[in-house]
Amino acid sequence: MSNKKRKSKPSSGKFVALKNELFSTSNYKKTISKFKNNYDLSFIEKNFDYLYKFKFTHRYITDIPFPTNYSDIKKGILLNYSDFETELGWTSVVLSKFANEITNFLVLKNEFMQNMFLGKLSICEEKLNVIEQNYGFSLWSLENRLILYEEYYGLKRQKGYSSIITKDDTVDNLLKFIIYYVSIKVEKNISAEKYNSYINESLESMGPGMLVDYLRFRLLHQDLSSTRNLLGILLYESDSPIIDRYLTFIRICQLIFTTENEYKDTAKKSIEILHRAGLDDYNLTTLYNLSNEIISNGSEKYFSVGERFLELVNFYTAGDYKKCIEYGQVLALQNSNFIEIAELLLKSEIRNPTGFLSNFPECLYKNILIRMNDILLKTERTVSSFIQLTKIIIIYSSYSWTFQLMAFLTNEFLENEDTHKNFHMKFGLINGLPYNPKFEKLFDSALVKKKIIKELEALFRNNIVLDFFNAVIDENITLINSDKFTTIPQYRINKYCGFIYRNKGDYSHALEYYLDISVQNDLLSYLGSIWKIIECYLKCNSFEYAIDYIVESYLKNQQIYVKLPIRSIIEKIDLHKSSNLKSNLSLPILYDIYTKHFKSASGKEIEEYEAYEEYLISKDVEKPSQFVIENLDEVEYRKLIYFLRFICVQNIMDNSPHFMSSEDVDNERILICQILSRSDESNIDLYQDEIKEITQKLMINKGLREIEQSKIYVDIRGIKNLLENSIKESYDRFQALMDLDNDVLQDDFIVVNLGEKYSNLNIMLLGSGEKRKLLTSILLEIRDKFVSSNEYGLDTYISTGIRHGTLAGQLRAILELHNLITQKNTEGLYKENEYWLDKILYYESRKKRTLNNALSDFSKNIDELIDLLKSSYLQIKTETKNPSGLFNYTIDEIDVSMIQFKINRELSFNDFVELVIELLWEKTERSLNSIRKMFKDSLFEKFNNIFEKLIQDVTNISLKSELNNHIISARTEIQNELVKLASWFTRAKSTQSSDYKIDLPINIALEMVKNIYPKKNIELDKKIDASVELKGHSLSGLVNIYFMLFDNVVKHDGFTGIFSKVLLNVEFKGNELLIYIENSMNNLNDIFERRKKLNNIKKSLDGNNSIEKVKEEGGSGFYKILRILKVDLGVVANVEFDYKNDNCFFVKIVANFEGLII
Amino acid sequence: MKILLVEDDQKKLTKIIDFLGEIVPNSVIEEARSYQSCLSRVIKTKYDLILLDMTMPTFDISPSETGGRPRAFAGYDILRQMKRRDINTHVIVVTQFDSFGDGSRKMSLEQLSKKLHQEFPMYVDSIYYNAAMNSWQTELNSFIKKIMERE
After folding, report:
1. Which residue of A574, A602, A662, A938 is the best one to mutate when testing the B interface, meaning the one whose CB has the most B CBs within 10 A?
2. Buried b (16+ CB within 10 A) or exposed e, A683-695
3. What average pLDDT does the segment A310-315 reach?
């Protein structure tokens, strides 16, 4: 009983005064509220009829009790509220006036659901129509119509119906809100988890309050255990139709009797009012029995079901599963809303398979049975069945059977008997049949339990189950083991004996009984006994045994993890970290099971590693590959295989100080897979696949590194060939001029100091005479060929390998991953950064603007800096071009003089060229040095300044912490990327790449594309003749070709989603390589323009100046591809490309690879 | 004083080294840039103080090493390894983040610091590093002075 002031019965004088007030006031709300709030329940019950006979009071008490239109729902006036007990009592009095209607509605509701279970949807529709005709529209009827429409007609009709309501201006807004979310709830394609997160998000944004508590109750039924504000629920339901008020009343009373609650007395009185009014509902009967601690015989209909159910329990307990199935099938199909019947049926079928389920018609009920069966057996579908059933529970949450199903799931999935589990188990029982022998579990006192069983015995005579339950309540082990119960299977006897000993706290005896179950070959009993065995071990201080038992049970069937008390045992480990435990292989496995299956384990990986390391230390090895697998018993062998397979993986091993790089860790994993291939032959394919995958990853990484280190390249042989024709003659002339006196040539001589670098050496330099002019022109020509030759020169390689998207892509990719940068739209403005803007509440428009401006500025600044880098810094600087270029190839007087000094008459043309190329390489090295320095210093500073500006710009944005973390992480990553990019500016090593299979360059190119477009995924449908091997020196060229082809797809396919679909065929016909790539195109409205542009490219590719185009930035890269084929790979090739069927683009390359094939 | 500075952000690393040069001019400062390079140094060498970043890659990033998996709680993992190995060097966490991890593991710097105090006796405190302000310098100076006085 609550502490509120008890209301005294009013004198008749006071009631007369109230009557007078009713007729003299226009404020009916105040007067009726006074009647509700100031008088005690029996007085209200006695005088309610008088009040309600005046129609003008209805608006305040029931409004329209059975609305003929949904727009009439929730239009009544809420009375002034008092306290919960007053509201509950008042509600029961109001409802008692409609006992007949409610009883009749419940019959139809039951028929509706029974037909839903069996998939008879047209009958459901008829029933629902009858319900709405006779008992009006209600929240219940609207919700069930949405369920029915979704099931029967599909999403479109369902959404159509809900939008009629939500768009109707005459409909109450709260009703619209509820219908909007119910419509989402009943969608087939939304998971329970997602729905919960939607609704929680929406309710949280409304802040706390009674209305939110009501909506939470209405829309998140399955979360009743956390229901706090019962008053708010009753209050906001008080203007709902009678049907909804009754269903909510029942649910609230159930809550009161499931939890430790101060309102039990008032609830009891309220239930009695409805019971007296003759309302026939098994839920009400259960509540009546519960509140009075009795078993009443209730209505004939449910009594008869109870009788048959007890018969079923009799068969089951006696182990007569065949009969149980025969009898149970009929019962289940008539009473599908009692999940306890389904559970017994399934458990019997598991023990004595008859295949009855396959004869069932496809329907909701069959689906539920199949899912429950998966869960009982802990099959591989256990988790997916759990998800399915949770979804069903959410959809049908206005039905009592969903709480039974919830109890079933809780029992099967929750390891401990904690408050949460107890709540659901009790709530399930309260929602079940009133005549279940387990009803006694709702009471704590043994005396009441016995009374309940006795009353059941009085109603249902000669029942072995009730006798047996009596013995269990009496804790009479001798009787349980006596001849009286010989028909009951031993595993059930053991289960209850274990239960009795556990209750007494005698865990070692309990353990004996439970352990005995596992040798009796009954899967369900074994599964049921597992956590009890573990609990007994723990209570007996056998901690290690408990862990071993968990791990060994898990290794037998991994799905049973749901029944194992893993979380609680993990929490106890620190207290028991004995040296024995450290050397126990079960410990790391236990951690692995935990991190694998439990969300709450996030962050426990480090503890799994520690257990891994302790075990290794105990075996005196540093790395798992040092293990020798021999002389192990079956259990230890299985544990060690598990340990190697699932725990000795990269993410665990990379914690160990014995590995110095990612590659080290990968190589160790390969060794482990090799051991596993030998020791666990049944899974050899898995291990071989993993070895292949890691090896390929390592090869791709190696290939990527090679490509990155080969970007600064000049084809010296090619250059020399070019020079032979153009310079040789000039050089011969220069040699001839050398024979002439300087006076003849009128050269001026000047003295030049070479500076500290050359020990301040003074040298005589020639002036501007003819000989010197000639030499200068020769040097400039060689330089130009070296840097600018379209076929062989440095700029060509820089353009292809660095400026062609890769550099910008690598930098931008990081910022895209952190969602800090956007692309420009067609008008050249940066697109809105939806990711961050969506995180700001819709009404904070000023903040949105500030943030959008800050991020747009950031995108712009970054792109400008990258552009500056590409178009200015990473260009070739000569005397006349690109003054800001850092590839400095200006030839000055000193260079000319240095060369001139080294030339003598014996110097051959080839040696002369070598001399000049050496000078150019020196210049290259100096340039690369300053570029690397620029990347690490000034460029980083410039990026840093842009980041600093962004940090400043977003200082006052509410997302500051989250956004700030992303900005700071991105800044550090950009820093690392700049160091990496700096390493690209290194002269390509002359070391040969190893020969390779033809899929390697494809995989490397895909990896490059992934690095540049982190939010895009190329979905490759490939046909590749992977057996062909090619010579190592062609790798870089092919990688660049594939990269440009994939890059083209991502850039130009027009799809905005994550995936770009690509068909790739690579095959050899003799020496001829055929590469065919095809991708779909989106949005080809401008196909005419595109074809025109393409034709221009084709023409210029055919023309003589195609190679000239190689250094041009942007575009499709076809010139570059052609150059690589012809020049770098030196093959005869043909490149074809075009649009196909107006929605497809293809490129076909045919090249003669003779000499490149191994 | 022998100090190990564990930091993967070059800019922050330079700033801290410069500041250490001012307040403990004769100290020897070694650098580590990842969970692994820190761990291997801590196991092999005895330091007087470790200045530890919280969020780092597993391995030192270089052109040939991607760094392995990034660790939101690398500093925490290192402290655990130190505790297991009975390494009792003073540790000050210096971080640019005010929150760590995500989902159920998300925690503020304050919460993290509380957790570190509870679990690790060698943990001194955490400093929020903001390059635009000098409060981190004041705090670092104060912590180091206290450590030196205690020694």
Report:
1. A662
2. eeeebeebbeebe
3. 93
